[in-house]
């Protein structure tokens, strides 16, 4: 003899009263994953194109520019004044990926503060990518920065779509 399982209580978030997630919420997840991938790509680019990053930095720094003119990139890299760009890029990527992971977990559960935090992260991402564009880095960095800006704008659009707003009110 088989019996039907008991229905979940109505106050259960996964129960019959919960509204299904709109596609905009699913798209937010995808855009955030793309942003994490782009950030990881930027970290890899910093490692692969390290000489160009150091050269660009040195051209904007008075003391480093003198070293660059006298001994080239090797002299600048051997100097104690050059920042460690690769570890910085890796740490930024790891922190960003973890932050997005945590905020995303709360966002898909309907926590409004996570949506606000993701929006603030997107605005910060736009500003950070715009700063990178102004540095005069090689074309690959420009492409990555433009992609990051576009993804952040799409993210902001998706976070505040009417169906996303409605879902947050119902959850």
Task: Report what the structure shows.
With 171 residues, the protein is an all-alpha fold. Helix 2 runs antiparallel to helix 3, helix 4 (85-107) packs antiparallel against helix 5 and helix 5 (112-134) packs antiparallel against helix 6. The protein has 7 helices and no strands. The chain has helices at residues 23-48, 50-59, 62-78, 85-107, 112-134, 139-159, 162-170. The longest helix is centred in the N-terminal third of the chain and has 26 residues, at 23-48. The model has no long low-confidence stretch (mean pLDDT 88). It has one domain (24-170). The protein is elongated, with a radius of gyration of 22 Å. 75% of the residues lie in helices and 0% in strands. Keywords: Membrane, Transmembrane, Transmembrane helix. Residues 1-22 are annotated as: Disordered. Residues 1-11 have a biased composition (Pro residues). The chain crosses the membrane at residues 28-48, 85-106, 113-133, 139-160.
In short:
With 171 residues, the chain is mainly α. Helix content is 75%, strand content 0%. The chain has helices at 23-48, 50-59, 62-78, 85-107, 112-134, 139-159, 162-170.
